[in-house]
Amino acid sequence: MKRHRPGPGWRHVNGAVYAHTSGLVIHTYGLAMIPGTIVVWGTRWPESQRLDKYIKINGGNRCRGVMAWAIKLDRPETPIIPF
User: Fold this and answer.
1) Cβ neighbours of residue 72 under 8 Å, at least 6 residues apart?
2) Per-residue pLDDT tens digits for 22-44
3) How many Cα atoms occupy the beta-carbon half-sphere of 53 within 13 Å?
């Protein structure tokens, strides 16, 4: 089975879990752990609407959409650029 390559700065940890060099950890189900602050669920309103927007921006790819959503949560000034 061919796995997709995560975006720049991301590494595959295990299963559906990815970690970013900034310390962010995500699960592709829609969970983001922001280092030193909180855990954010993307399955609850209003975050579910924001997460759906990022998934659409990234061509329907849920994994890349969650990565973009988590980056935006951690650094709001980062522009929205699909991977």
Assistant:
1) 50, 54, 78, 80
2) 899 999 899 999 888 788 898 88
3) 11
